[in-house]
């Protein structure tokens, strides 16, 4: 199945779904069917951090130790900025062999961080770039500590409800959710249920559900200054340049690139059974979102 949203010049012009939300019961997807968006969640998390920065509650150059004092930094200084732009050097827990053994489990924040706790840093913070789910899990923990509420509640109250994103919410294996798509993959050419996984693990790095329509509404709001101030979005959408001059093409929850000859700001998401892409073509003022509940269907 697919959930598709397209907006142009401030208006949603396509909000449709195709195929099946549930293959076993042959239930068709509709425009309100919620799909897992995986790492597109990171854009929401980055915006939440920038809103807290605007409110003076945190600083991009704050030391991680100020918020997570129990995490051993091994003599390193890691800033919130480096968590946002994937330059912290903290190991990415989803790259570790140990993670493969706990994928189906619901883990606490502490249990997720235990996977990387005490392991050598991949590099000195700020010197290199490596896509990092651990960092965004930590950012969610910082949001909770500073706001005093759960990440799910913060996102709902600050973003989803005010922006009328009625089909966007935090995922949970325990909660009954009407019109939530199931995830699939291919095995030897046949459609199969994808692996079960603990929805608490991706957390602020990848645990949101949404639709194509809601994602383009979000993208329009973010680009127009209705989520964070324009200067904050400019920071989010400015690519990080490493000390050796390498352009990482990533800002905060935004990849800055070119697509089919067009300037594009985008972020993808790949999570068990699902694949997503959200992009904004600023020169054409077009926002596009595509989410699939078939993991092999890649967006690029």
Give the arrangement of secondary structure elements.
Blueprint: E1 2-8, E2 11-18, E3 20-22, E4 27-28, E5 35-36, H1 41-54, H2 80-84, H3 109-114, H4 133-147, H5 151-160, E6 169-170, E7 184-187, E8 190-193, E9 208-210, H6 212-223, H7 230-236, E10 255-259, E11 262-271, E12 274-281, E13 286-292
Antiparallel strand pairs: 1-2, 1-13, 3-4, 5-9, 6-9, 7-8, 10-11, 11-12, 12-13
Helix pairs in contact: 1-4
List keywords for this structure.
300 residues; alpha+beta; globular; 6-stranded antiparallel β-sheet; 3-stranded antiparallel β-sheet
Summarize the structure.
With 300 residues, this protein is of the alpha+beta class. The chain is built from 7 helices and 13 strands.
Describe the 3D structure.
The chain has 300 residues and is α+β, with helices and mostly antiparallel strands. Helix content is 23%, strand content 22%. It has a 6-stranded antiparallel β-sheet with strand order 2-1-13-12-11-10, with helices on one face. Strands 5-9-6 form a 3-stranded antiparallel β-sheet. A hairpin with a 4-residue loop joins strand 12 and strand 13. It is globular.
- The tally of beta strands, per DSSP, is 13
Average of per-residue pLDDT values: 96
Secondary-structure element pattern, one letter each: EEEEEHHHHHEEEEHHEEEE
Structural class, from secondary structure content? alpha+beta
Q: What's the alpha carbon Rg, rounded to whole Å?
A: 18 Å
Count the helices. How many?
7
The backbone outline, from C-alpha atoms, is globular
Strand order of the largest sheet: 2-1-13-12-11-10
Low-confidence stretches: none
Query: In this structure, how is the largest beta sheet organized?
Result: 6 strands, antiparallel
Strand content: 15-25%
Approximate helicity band: 10-25%
**Measured distance between first and last alpha carbons:** 17 Å
